[in-house]
């Protein structure tokens, strides 16, 4: 594959995976959790580096996942203390992210680990760092991680589809049916963490948040059926990745930033023209109703 093809494929995997996870974040009214975890994984990465003094390896992934789970646990714990959930998210993610930034500034030294890289990512560097994969040959490490993350997320969504559906729409009913709501909550947060970590190094926190929230919000405007929403959200994520790449090449700007912009463009189109919730549809329907005898 060409250099550009690897970048587009990797970004499409980010869009597809984040699109699936994002639907449940939107339905559970936890969109800000995407922002929280995408920032707090920085703390896990920094601590893993300080413990090993190596910038690559499974320890970085483990550290980031632990940080994501810690974020979910602290948010849930504060919520049980009668602190509003969105306020809990804001308190936890700003505090943990600030600790990560301070550790980078004071303890990391000359290593290639900085806040700008964490926020924006370096998707143009993806094709240069490869790993040998059986039957597939040499594949970029980031692409391999994101492909694995996509398979894991898709497996859990398909395997526990009914449970995710019930716990997302009516947690009280799920609990009365004997479904372990709290366990599923932390499994879901683990999936969010895995997805965020897999995409974090390649595209940065800003694009992760954009891909987790905006495609799902766009899909929510087009359909009320969960299965269709999942497919549409994932498709919007892939479409945003492709459009964003070509926008960036035309105007010579940040690829990750352009992909995030593309998610916003798709949302605006959905907001205007979706058949049920779109502004244009709402204007046309009353006019059509007046004409009817």
From TrEMBL:
Q: Where in the cell is it found?
A: Cell membrane
Q: Which GO terms describe its biological process?
A: response to zinc ion; transmembrane transport
Q: List UniProt keywords, sorted A-Z.
A: Cell membrane, Membrane, Transmembrane, Transmembrane helix, Transport
Residues passing through the membrane, by range: 6-27, 34-52, 58-78, 90-113, 133-161, 173-192, 198-221, 228-248, 254-273
Q: What InterPro entries has UniProt attached to this entry?
A: ABC_BtuC-like, ABC_TroCD
Q: How does it sit in the membrane?
A: Multi-pass membrane protein
Q: Where is the signal peptide?
A: none
What cellular component GO annotations does this protein have? ATP-binding cassette (ABC) transporter complex
Similarity comment? Belongs to the ABC-3 integral membrane protein family.
In Swiss-Prot or TrEMBL terms, this protein is called: Iron ABC transporter
